[in-house]
# Entry
Amino acid sequence: MPYIDSKVSVSISEEQEKELKTRLGQIISLIPGKSEAWLMTGFQDNYHLYFRGDNSQPVAFIEVKVFGRNNPGAFEAMTAEICKIFGDVLGIASDHIYIKYEAVSDWGWNGGNL
# Structure
């Protein structure tokens, strides 16, 4: 039950959104037990983000939430890939991307909790 939410300061075209969704779906398996079959993604473009007090450069804040436990090694691998993806697709430099990881122990789905 992973969820990846992206807030970016640039516009995202429909084509770019599909590419982001596809590539995030491919890398989610870097976290053991996670797959695109359960992945939910969200994209907020033209978000008002300031980094170092400035908003003249493209910036991204990305949250990755997973049901279960922290996995620092997998999260490290995900960070490298997420930075590459958002750089390739949206031109956001990796030093202008923050990524927050959160392991969630309580997760609801389909009328109940897991």
